[in-house]
Design brief:
3 domains; about 40% helix; signal peptidase activity; 3 helices; single chain; elongated; alpha+beta; Pept_S26A_signal_pept_1_Ser-AS; Umud Fragment, subunit A; about 180 residues
């Protein structure tokens, strides 16, 4: 099945393989630089996230990609949709602000998923309110269902490895032509 590709790899030699590796590293580093640039521009540690649950339906559905910003001096308002991460939790949560209290220099927020019956206090792991330091960003836009690719790769790791292998083979074939 891959005998032609393996034969091409053998004909490249050490110099050709090093050149291919350098090309791959260039693509990866370019992607990382673009990601870090987006992080700086949006003031968010993760300017793009994928919705993983149905807790915000009908506003957002599972698989939607959200674009975030985190304006430094602008307070969050009731109705804003935020993405926050509680210490000790692995996955960020996308929910709407339902209460806001500002005291001195601290803003305290209470959130709730649109499709959930109650607020998020039970999700806060003992914290009574969300603070600014917990917020990753405010939702500014979205693309519906595009994030299913990410969900599928997380649910089926073998799909991720197959996709990476295909990308590598395509790069090799393009280099040969």
């Amino acid at each position: 099945m891959f005998s032609n590709e393996i034969a091409r790899l053998r004909t490249l030699g050490v110099q050709g393989l090093l050149f291919q590796a350098l090309n791959l590293l260039t693509v990866i580093s370019s992607g990382l630089m673009m990601w870090k640039g987006l992080c700086l521009i949006t003031n968010s540690e993760s300017p793009i996230v994928v919705v993983l649950s149905g807790s915000m339906e009908p506003a957002f559905y599972r698989g939607d990609i959200l674009f975030l910003t985190n304006p430094a001096e602008v307070p969050y308002e009731i109705g804003d949709i935020t993405v926050y991460k509680i210490p000790g939790a692995d996955i960020p949560i996308v929910h709407r602000v339902i209460e806001s209290h500002i005291s001195n220099t601290t803003q305290l927020l209470l959130t709730k998923g649109d499709n959930n019956p109650g607020d998020d206090i039970t999700l806060y792991n003992g914290i009574e309110w969300i603070e600014r330091k917990h917020i990753i960003g405010k939702v500014r836009g979205f693309l519906p269902y595009i994030g299913y690719v990410t969900i599928a790769m997380n649910d089926f790791p073998q799909l991720k490895y197959a996709l990476l292998g295909c990308v590598g083979l395509v790069m090799l074939i393009q280099q040969e032509t």
